[in-house]
Amino acid sequence: MNSSVSSSHNSVLINLKIKFSKLLQQPTFLIGSVLVIILSYLVIAPIVSIFSNSVSLTMMDAMLSGGKDGEFTYKYVDRVFASSISEKIFWVPLKNSLTVSFFATLIALTLGLILASLVTSTNIFGRKYLGFLLIIPYMLPSQAMATAWLTMFKNRKISGPQGMLESFGITPPDWLAYGPLPISICMALSYFPFAFLLFSSALSKIDIQLEEVASTLGAKTKVIWSKIILPLLIPTTMSVLLLTVARTLGTFATPYILGTPAKYTLLSTSLYSSVRSNDSGVVAVIAIVLSLIGVMLLLVDIWVVRKWQRFVTVGGKGVKRQPSKLGILRTPTTLFAWVIFLIAALGPFIVLALSTLMREPGNFAFSNFGLAYWTGVNVPGMDQPGIFTSPEVITALKNSFLIAGSASVICGFLGLLIGYAVVRLPGTLISGFLRQISFLPYLMPGLAFAAAYLSLFAVSRGPIPALYGSISLLILVMVVTYLPYASRSGISAMMQVGPEPEEAGMVLGAGFWRRITSILAPLQKSALIIAIILPFITGMKELSLVVMLVTPGTELLTTQSIRFLDFGYTQLANATILIIGVVVMISVLILNRLTKTNLASGLGG
Amino acid sequence: MSEIKLKSIVKNFGGNSIAVDNLSEIFPDGEFVCLLGPSGCGKTTTLRMIAGLETPDSGEISYGEKIFFSSKNGEFIKTENRNLGLMFQSYALWPHMTVFKNIVFGLEMQKKSLDEKEKRYLELEKLFHLENFRDRYPSELSGGQQQRVALARMLAMKPNLLLLDEPLSNLDSNLRLEMRSELKRLHQSLGCTIIFVTHDQMEAMTLATSIAVMNKGKIEQIAKPMEIYNNPKSLFVAKFVGSPQMNIINSDKDENLALCLSKKLNIEKNKVKNFGARPESIKMVQQNNGDINAKIETIQPTGADWIVGLNVSGKSIFVISSEQPIGKENDTIGIDFKVEGCHSFDSNDLRIVKS
Predict the structure, then answer these.
(1) Where are the domains of chain A?
(2) Helix, strand, coil: what percent of chain B each, to 5?
(3) Mean pLDDT of chain A, nearest integer
(4) Does B157 touch chain A (CB under 8 A)?
């Protein structure tokens, strides 16, 4: 009896000893554990806090209606779903959101599919350039399209300078200027490049031999498309559909800019007004609903992908599809593709740029052009300094660089670290947990996540001080939101390298740090650079995530442009958006240069 | 004696099947041992456990006096300190280092002086014909050159134990032949112990001084190559070694042929579950002159000899003949079995050894 106890005790010790020596050889386990602790707090805590907020009485309400601060209550659930104001704050916005999402997704999907087919598989003119040019709208901040629309179609309903059409004497009707129609179109034009990217890559992945077999059996191009290619694109179509719906639901800028004048509220803008009116219970409930819709869409997507797995074709010899000749349709299709580029990418840019250069909109006299909105000390009629002399813009520019820059650097390293732990600890609890938890923020729309952070960090908790109003909160929330992309690319980068290079070093006597510094780090250099630049680009144009977390002094370029719009300084807003566009474009070019590949594929996320 | 001892090694990756199943074996000093088996038989896992890249769930691994791993007292020597050479199937050359940097990496770890590194590099450069490649990167080398760099990198520190994980499978057939003789020459000149993992029975036959045939995490038979070929211990070994495969004749399904072989081998048919006949042990003769008649189905000339597909009362078998077959497709001929190439296996798939 006694001896068996001591021997089992002994074997535990021996086991520990082996584990310890393994740990010294490969301290991945340690890295993984530390990551688990940090991520648990950053990801799970906000979620927990938002759930608890949705059912606990706020101090304000406690004072008004009696009851204790933090007491359990269904008050907010009730207020959102079944009160006198629930129609206004929830049901109508929900209906509007679904309507707008439906149309925007429909347009984006159709445009994406048609353009991808044209560019990858036909001989339209300029296909080489279109592949890149059609992705540009995706790089512009989402408010660029909306403000360009406003600059063009705005009428006297709202204050500020005249719209361009109006200055020509044409007054656009309200339904064209504001509300569901422009919101759907602008969202579609912002998001179709995403569909375009996914369809293009799916089309180029279809094994060309599948089509060649059909043509040897006598099928014409038209039949090949209808019977083989399009059916094979079904899984991609479903993914595009669901992900675009998810994106449109979480978009804030477009409905805020184009919906507010017509009092057309979406869930995202309704959430924002609740934040502004400090109704944290309602905020929590709406954020949960938004997240649940996100989770549902994602689950459907996973289910679809699994169900259609049999459609996944293993690539053949990598032969490119011969572009099919369009014949008589060549000119009209070319025209169509370039017009889309003009409307979605070049148009907004020109409209925004023109509006900042013309003192009076619509007056094309040479004397009307000038740089007052850019360099003026005091812009006439606004009592505001020009962009380059405005202290607010300078601060916002600094903040944008600081916040997006630090967040992307942290994201890059964190992603690789997570990738390392996940790939090197296969089959363990830590690996699975890290994979799941770093993916979790993907399920919540940026607005909901921001709401969660707002409620978590508004007051100090334990060792963590109240971060509301600080730059670090913005960095933190950005890091966590981009974590799914960062960890995914980190994992795939680590997978690509595989364990062999490191093991080869191990056999030759290199210790852990030596392996990291002289083998792994140089091998991952380019992956790291990409992993930093990509979130930087997204961070520079981020709005919905940060709009409710900024305070005076921590404004970013994106939020500053919204402020300008709020005050009716359309030209200043447009100029600010142009600055963002330029910074993003330069980053994209740098990335292109560094990776020598088509970066667009990386933005897909 | 620096022999490698494996004692009751068990390794389970948590799947349905066990990777290495209570494996005990001794690989003597100076041998060129081939671990041969189909994919998933545990041969690479065994190699990686010797290298220390995997840890066994239980058991003991030792090399000479040094205990690499023991689950009894928790002994574990880190890979870094085992002082052995390992070559990967992918070679795992570091793409960001030049040929020189790759090769002297191990010496750098031992903080050797620049002179020593230079001296050893020049030796290896000569040995593996790597002149002019010093400042190239691995991506600028051909497959054969990469292979030689990997060999040089492994040998830079003069390890006494070399572990090779399918090092030839990424090469084309000409280069493979060349590298096989290179490896054989290396083994003879260095006198070190080599453990070589492969699924290619031809590679194992030509290279090894002893072959360990593995199946489902166990070693089925370990012996000298010709011994494995001539006296396979089990049906699995018999089938795995030899190309074209040994003809397997089931004593129930292929009755006529089985009856014929049982007479030839002088063994009761009902004691035997399967008979085996090596393709080169079957001789084609004129109709009715052999042990049994057969119909020619296919003739495949390989240049050096002919692989002939025969049908013996419904059973398809293959024959290798160094002479032109005496008939053409659809002709009926006779066949003669040579006793030394024919075997019988019992219901446990073990070879029946006649006393």
Answers:
(1) 77-345
(2) 30, 30, 40
(3) 84
(4) yes
Helix A234-250 × helix A267-276 angle, to 10°: 30
Cβ count near A409 (within 10 Å): 17
HEC profile of A279-307: CHHHHHHHHHHHHHHHHHHHHHHHHHHHH
User: Is the pLDDT assigned to residue B116 strictly greater than 90?
Assistant: yes
Q: How far is CA B201 from the centre of its chain?
A: 5
Give the Cα separation of A416 and A426 in Å (integer). 16
Kindly list the strands in the beta sheet with B85-87, ordered across the sheet, starting from the edge strand earlier in the chain: B85-87, B161-165, B193-198, B32-36, B210-215, B218-223
pLDDT for res A603: 40
Task: Give the residue from B80, B93, B110 with the most A CB atoms within 10 Å of its CB, the best one to mutate.
Answer: B80
Check residue B52 and give left, alpha or beta (phi > 0: left; psi -120 to 50: alpha): left
Contact B79 A506 (CB under 8 A): yes
One CATH from 3.40.190.10, 3.40.50.1100, 1.10.3720.10, 3.40.50.2000 for A77-345 = 1.10.3720.10
Per CB-CB distance under 8 Å, the chain A contacts of B90 are 498, 500
Q: How confident is the model at residue B294 (pLDDT cuts 50, 70, 90)?
A: very high
Give per-residue pLDDT as tens, B216-240. Answer: 999 999 999 999 999 999 999 999 9
Residue A60 clears pLDDT 80, i.e. is over it: no
Q: Is B249 helix (H, G, I), strand (E, B) or coil?
A: strand
The residue type at A443: L
Q: Within 13 Å of residue B219, how many CA atoms lie on the same side as its CB?
A: 23
Instruction: Tell me what ipTM this predicted complex has.
Output: 0.79
* pTM of the predicted model as reported, rounded to 2 decimal places: 0.78
Q: What is the DSSP string of A308-363?
A: TGGGPPPP-S-PPPPPBP-GGGHHHHHHHHHHHHIIIIIHHHHHHHHHHHBSSTT-
Q: Domain spanning B4-239: which superfamily?
A: P-loop containing nucleotide triphosphate hydrolases (3.40.50.300)
Which positions in chain A touch B157 (Cβ < 8 Å)?
508-509
Domain with CATH 3.40.50.300 in chain B: 4-239
Compute the distance between CA of residue A416 and CA of residue B79 in angstroms, rounded to an integer. 24
Q: A447 with A287: CB under 8 angstroms? A: yes
Provide φ and ψ at B7, rounded to 5°: -125, 115
What pLDDT does A600 receive? Answer: 46
Instruction: Give the span between the Cα atoms of A294 and A440, in whole angstroms.
Output: 11
Percent of chain B with pLDDT over 70: 99
Q: Using CB atoms, pick whichever of A14, A18, A505 lies closest to residue B105.
A: A505
* pLDDT tens, residue by residue, A206-263: 877 777 778 788 788 888 888 888 888 888 888 889 888 988 988 899 999 999 888 9
Q: Give CA–CA dist A513/A508, Å, rounded.
A: 14
User: What pLDDT, on the 0 to 100 scale, is given for residue A242?
Assistant: 87
Nearest to B304 by CA among B280, B332, B334: B280
Segment A388-396 shows an average pLDDT of 88
A509-523 burial: b if 16+ Cβ within 10 Å, else e: bbebebbbebbbeeb
Task: Kindly state whether B106 is in contact with chain A, defined as any CB-CB distance less than 8 angstroms.
Answer: yes
Class of domain B244-345 (CATH, top level): mainly beta
pLDDT of residue A315: 53
Chain A residues inside the 8 Å CB shell of B137? none
**A507 contacts in chain B (CB < 8 Å):** 51, 79-80, 82, 84-86
Amino acid A604: pLDDT: 35
Burial class of residue A367 in the structure, from the number of CB atoms within 10 Å of its CB (0-12 exposed, 13-18 middle, 19+ buried) = exposed
CA distance A30 to chain B (A): 17
Helix, strand or coil, per DSSP, at residue B301: strand
